[in-house]
Sequence to fold (449 residues):
Amino acid sequence: MASVKITLVGGGSYNWTPGVLGNILGNKYLDGCHVMLHDIDAEALSLTFELALKYKELAGSGITFEQTTEQAAALDGADYVVVTISTGGLKTMRVDLELPEKYGIFQTVGDTVGPGGLSRALRNVPVFLQIARAMEQYCPKAWMLNCSNPLCVLTRVVNKETSIPALGVCHGVLGVARNYAEFFGVPLGECAYVNTGIDHCSWFTDFVVRGRPAYDLLVEMGVDEWLAKPPAEAEKDEVFGDLYRLRCGIMLGRCLGALPAIGDRHMAEFFPNYLEGMDNVERFGLVRTSIADREKGYANGRGRIERMLSGEEEIEIRAATDVVGERLSDDVAGWMAALSGGPVVEDNLNAPNTGQIPELPWDAIVETRGVLDATGIRPLVSPMPKQIEAIVRPHVLREELSVEAAVEGSFEKALAVMASEPLVGSIDNAKPMLEEMMAANKDWLPQFA
Fold:
C-alpha cells in the first residue's frame, strides 16, 4: 500500500504511539504505506521515532517512517490523520481535576463531562479546528481519526465546522463486551449485542450469550445479592469479582433494563449521585485517576520505550486481532485499511448521527456498532429506549453547546453548560468555578481573550 500516507498528530505520545505503531505494523494490508510522526515536543518525538524504526526492523516491514515538528509537512498529502493530543498536558489536567474538589466535586477521570470535561473541551476545540482547517489545505480528502477526549465534542466540531470527515475511536465498548464474554467463559464471537449511547455513556440494550440474555444469567448467578454487598467485599467476590469495575453501572442498569457498555470510572461522571463528596465516592467503591497516577503513567511509558530501545525489554508487535481472529481494541489500522479497500471491518464507531440512533439529534456524535469499507462507514441502527434517552439527550445538548462556546469564545454559553451540568450540585458554584478554571488555563484559551 505504497500510496497511503498516515500521519500521527501527537506522535510523540509515550503511551499511545507504541500501540498505534504496533497496530499499523501488525496489519498486513498496510505494508508499504508511509507513516509520518508529528509532534511539537521534539524530544519525545525523537524517542518514538527511534522506536518506530526498531519496530520496522523487527517486523521486516515495508512501511516507511518519517518524523517532523512542522505541521504542513506532516499533513501534506495525508490520507489519514490520527490525533492523540491533550492541549496543555498534565498542567492543565491538574486544574480540571483538582479545582472542582474545592466545590465538593470529585471526578474519577475528568476528561469527558462535568467541570473537567468542559474545561478540556474549551482548550482543545481551537486546536482541533486549526488541525482540521490545515487538513483542508494540505490533505482535503483525508479522514481524521480522533482518539482524544472529550471525544464527542472534538469529533463533532471538526464535522460541524470543516469539510473534513472525522470519526471517534474509543476502545471502551469492545473492551467491556470482552469482559462480559470472559466472565461467562465464552469467546466474544458467541455473544451478540446492541449498544447505543455516546462516548463513555453507552449501554448494551441487548446482550445475548449463546442464545440467552446476559441479565437472566447474571440474576441466576446471584447478581442482586452481589450488588448489595459493600465495595470491599464485592471486589473480592469469587463469582462476580471480575465485574467489579462495572458494578455501579450494573447497579444502575438493573433499573434501566440495560447493561453498562463502559466502566464505572467514566460512567459515574454522567450521574451526580456518585461523585458528590469523597464519602460518596468511597461508598460506591469508585477508583479515581489522579494527576499523580497520570504522571506515573507518563514516566512508565517513557521508561518502557527506553527499555525496549536498549534491549532490556522484549518488543512485541501485535495486530489488532487475537489468535482466533476476534477484534481487539483501538484498531485504527484496521479502520484505515478498510477505508482504503482492504478487509471490511465491523467495530464500535463514534460517528455523526445519520439515523443510527433516531431518538438523538441529527449529526450529534453517537456511539454504535458500524461497518467500514471502501465506500465509507455505515453505522448500525441502534434505537435508544426512553429511560436511556432521558439520561443521554441532555448531555448531547450540552456537548453541542460546549462546541458553540469554544468556537465563539462565549463565556455565557460555557456558563450555561456549567450551570446545567449534573455534577455541579449548587448553581452558586457554576460561575466562580468556571471563572477560576478559565483563569488558570488562560494561556490555552485564546478565543476568550
